Amino acid sequence: MGTNNQDNTASSRDSLPLRLATAAVGIPILAAAVWLGSIPLLLVTAAATFLGIWELRMLLRPMGHVVWPVSALLAGAFLFSASTDDASPALIALTVIGGGTLGAALFAFRLRTWSGAQAWVATVIAAVYPAVFLAAGLLLREKPDGLAWLGYAILITFASDTAAYAVGSLIGRHKLVPAISPSKTWEGAIGGIIGAAVVSAAFAAFIDLDALPLATAIALGAGLSVLGQLGDLAESWLKRTAGVKDSGQLLPGHGGILDRLDSLLPILPAVLVYVTIVTTME
Question: Over pLDDT 90: what percentage of the chain?
């Protein structure tokens, strides 16, 4: 990330054509996958997950070496469970994680070195961070009105990110967490919360969902914006720790896949939990 708003604005202006071109390709693919659900959504989710694991190899390097084939297998188990409604693969993955963690800790105490344990922790994080959170999107799509709810989660993420960027660029003066992300401001954060709340209210007004009354929609949108911004800051912290500007170079003008998913990752399970709780109470 840049060191000041002026530099960020100039950089964003220079990369705008690339950003628009990438969005013109990516948005229709995402929209089609969400609309169709099932196998198309699983394929897009799996691609995002495995690319995210590849990027996390670099971001988690200060913590330990990521054994990416192991991360990919664990992630695949979680995605398979979410897409088939069969908990067995996820339970096997959790058993492997638990056993591996215990084994890594025992070896660390015996050998008096934590390098192996750190590598195992990094490997598990690389699997769980994208896979479990994105698997929530697969589960959400299968809920009653799942198309609307998954679209809602993505829309709120976009609204929060866009409003935060616009307000922060225009009137941002007070740094939010300069040690982690120098370009983010309190004004931008508040703008993101308001933007998400307004879009959430508009969604509730136009889409008839019994589980999303207007007052609840405003509060939910604001809360999801906070979660999304925390996810953004978490990835910014990983990038700063790794000493890189972007998580990758896959998406021209946007950076890596995690740069686009950082806000969405915590929002998906939050919406899934909300929908599950509300529909269970009905």
Answer: 77
Sequence-separated contacts (24+) of 33-37 with Cβ below 8 Å: 34/141, 34/147, 34/150, 34/151, 34/154, 35/147, 37/141, 37/142, 37/146, 37/147
Q: For residue 175, which phi and psi values (nearest 5 degrees)?
A: -65, 140
Helix (H, G, I), strand (E, B) or coil at 191: helix
Q: What is the pLDDT of residues 18-36, one digit of tens each?
A: 776 777 878 899 999 999 9
Q: Where are the alpha helices (DSSP H) in the chain?
A: 5-36, 38-59, 68-84, 88-111, 115-141, 146-171, 186-206, 214-242, 257-261, 264-281
As given in the structure block, the two tokens for residue 155 are 């829309």
At residue 32's C-alpha, the angle toward residues 56 and 73, to 5°, is 35
| Cβ 251 vs Cβ 23: under 8 Å | no
211's tokens:
């589980």
- What Rg value do the Cα atoms of the chain yield, rounded? 19
Dig out the tokens for 24 from the structure.
């013109």
Check pLDDT > 50 for residue 155: yes
Contact 224, 230 (CB under 8 A): no
Structure tokens at 249: 């170079």
Q: Could you tell me if 140 and 272 are in contact, meaning their C-beta atoms sit under 8 angstroms apart?
A: yes
Mean pLDDT of 105-109: 90
Cα–Cα dist 216/166, whole Å: 25
d(CA 107, CA 75): 25
Q: Measured between alpha carbons, how far is 91 from 127 in angstroms, rounded to an integer? A: 14
Question: In this structure, what is the dihedral angle of CA atoms 256, 41, 209, 158, given to the nearest 10 degrees?
Answer: 10
DSSP lists the bridge partners of residue 175 as 185
